[in-house]
Amino acid sequence: GEWFPQPGHESQLREPVYAIFVMLEAVRLVQSAEGSGSKREVGEGQKSALVSHISGLGIGTTPSALIAHGIDTTIIEIDPTVHSFATRYFNLPSNHTPIIEDAITFVDRNKHRRKYDYIIHDVFTGGAEPIDLFTVEFLTGLKDMLTADAVIAINYAGDLYLPTARSIIHTILSVFPHCRLFRESPTPPSTPPHQTDFTNLVLFCRQSADAFTFRPPTKADFLGTQARKYHLVPQHEVDPVTFLGEGEGGIGV
Fold this sequence. Notes:
This protein is an alpha/beta fold. It has seven helices and ten strands.
C-alpha cells in the first residue's frame, strides 16, 4: 500500500506503507567490504534487475523504485490482473518488461540465457510462502542468472520459530556462498514457548564469498520519500548461525 500524498510535499514516488519493500531496494547499496564498489560503480542506466512475484506484485513498490533509478527492470507475476491493476491504478511505470507466467518456468527457460545485476525474490502471497520457489533447484537457477558482481535479495515472511523457516533459510544459505540477514523489525526479547515471531526476513546474497556492506545512501536514493530515509538501509541484522542448527536439512523438489 501507499499513503495519500501530503499537500505541498513533492516526491518522485508516493510514500510506501510497508518498510519491507523499501528494504529490498537496498540491493542497489551493496558494495564490497573494502568499499571499492568495483563494478558496482557502473551507471545504473546500464544495470538490469529481475523482480520475481507470485501473486505478490501488489502495487509494485520495489520495481517502481528500481525503474525510477533508471534500471532496466523485468517483472515476473503469475496473475495478469495483479499486474494490470498495479499499472492502471497505482502508477507502476510502463517502461519495464512484464513476464506473466510461473516463475519456475521462466527461470528454467532463461537460467543460462540471461544475466541480471539485481534480483528481487519476493513471493509472499499474504497467507503462505510457495515452497516450490525455495527449493535448491529453483534458487540455483536464480543464482545462475546473476552476473559475477550481482546481488539477490530474498524476502521470507513467516514465523521464524517454525521448523519451516529454519529449513528454507538453511536451503538459501546452502546455495549462496555469502548472505547477510536482516529482520524488518528488531528481534523480540526471549518469549515463552508456543509464542510466535512472525516477521519479514530479507537475505542479501552474492555469487562471491567475499564480505560486503552497504554504501551510505544519498539524497537521490530516497526518491523524495521519508520512508526511504528511515528504512532503505537494513538495520536489524541476524546471525545466520541462528538458523543453522544441527540436523537441519534443506528443501529439494
